[in-house]
Amino acid sequence: MDNQHVLIIDDEPDIRDLLVMTLERMGLRVTAAADLVQARRALGANDFSFCLTDMRLPDGNGLDLVQQIGRDHPDLPVAVITAHGRVEDAVQALKLGAFDFVSKPVDLGMLRKLVNTALRLRADDSTPEQDDDFDAANAPAPIVEPDGELSRLIGNSQAMNRCRQMIRKLARSQAPVLISGASGSGKELAARLIHDLGPRIDGPFIPVNCGAIPTELMESEFFGHKKGSFTGADANKEGLFQAADGGTLLLDEVADLPLHMQVKLLRAIQEKAVRPIGAREEIGVDVRILSATHKALKPLVEEGKFRSDLYFRLNVIELHMPSLAERPDDIPALATHFLKNITAEWDTQAPAISPDAMDALQQHDFSGNVRELINILQRAVTMSEGGAIDPDDLMLEQFDDLHDGANGHANGDAPLPGLDADQSLDTYMEDIEKQMLEEALKKARYNKTRAAEQLGISFRSLRYKLKKYGID
Ligand SMILES: Nc1ncnc2c1ncn2[C@@H]1O[C@H](COP(=O)(O)OP(=O)(O)OP(=O)(O)O)[C@@H](O)[C@H]1O
């Protein structure tokens, strides 16, 4: 870290001195500026590795500097110091391309972590950055060569290129990202890439399905607990935030968070600290938050089911993963890639996909997106007898029937089985319930969250019923 030169901008002499001293103790060379004019002069005359600016300065707003640095020095990470509780300022700074923020009074421990992360980013900089904008959603996407980690994202459509371009850019920031997209469209894969391409790569990546944690255990799962803090707390337990310290926490299916937990999460995200159940003190955590959802969150906010303040905090930047219907041209490349993977994993000969079968795949309505394509190919490799996969091997009608079928039974269109003479009404009802559960699971490609949705019951209720009937 020797010789790295950083720029601090703050008009309050006491705070400025404290910041300078803290960073110099980290072995950094520090230049301090008291206003925008001094800062611009310093930027023009030096090659900085990191910049930290206050928001309110005597001759203007620190956000103007964030924008200017984004334009003139796109590789220079810049963080802002926000007044305590001014979440809007922090969100605005992140949207404008700030790397991260710290709020006043500045916690020096957190600041040191932030600076280390920023300098790691700078040290890793080997590839020149594209000078693009976060919200340039409709701009034509320049081709981002799918080399290195990004080659894990298959597909060369415009939509996929735009995703790669966004992911590369998002990896450089610490801003919260909301990843939207249909089931199986690659949301978790995108989150992993943002983590792997960023300065937190050596830290943990912890994905958590928010719909899968029982309500009563949520607080303990996220924040941990102290031994003896409630019945059954036999030992101290670390929560997911602590487990993700120095890395990334992915809140998957974030729409399924119950309201009481949304309040607690918001606090943890804002304060960058958690308090385990039964603990007196809060513990600072250095975690980047990504979230993913297949449900549109905005309508949930309007219905009062998702807190608007949490939505505002999580959705600083949105990354949309396109469904296969939006990029059918990517299907051949995806199919060829997965076929190779499957045959390598199963140690069998790789059959070719006949042109007719490829056509059929391109016509197919993939409600389960890439995950469904993988399932279809796994089955096709098992079914194919000759050297090629033919349309029949794909058994696409069966997948279509599954799309339509569960609606049939689940909505009561299909005839109900008759009641046996020696059967009680209870066991008869249980048989029907079991049958509906199995069909909904099949239709949802064994995604329990989706199956619960189709059945109109909560995830927790589904899990209870599956256990009751011994369905795995
Ligand atoms: N563009 C892609 N290139 C290569 N593999 C992909 C791509 N998109 C998705 N996959 C693969 O498809 C599978 C499903 O992707 P993933 O779990 O990321 O989807 P998801 O959107 O998070 O799904 P869900 O909504 O069900 O949680 C994974 O095996 C993933 O690696």
UniProtKB/TrEMBL annotation:
InterPro entries: AAA+_ATPase, AAA_lid_NorR, CheY-like_superfamily, Homeodomain-like_sf, HTH_Fis, P-loop_NTPase, Sig_transdc_resp-reg_receiver, Sigma_54_int. The keyword Transcription applies. SMART domains: AAA, REC. Keywords: ATP-binding, Nucleotide-binding, Phosphoprotein, Transcription, Transcription regulation. Residues 5-119 form the Response regulatory domain. The modification 4-aspartylphosphate is found at D54. One of its GO terms (biological process) is regulation of DNA-templated transcription. Residues 153-382 form the Sigma-54 factor interaction domain. This is Sigma-54-dependent Fis family transcriptional regulator. Gene3D superfamilies: 1.10.8.60, 3.40.50.2300, Homeodomain-like (1.10.10.60), P-loop containing nucleotide triphosphate hydrolases (3.40.50.300). The keyword Nucleotide-binding applies.
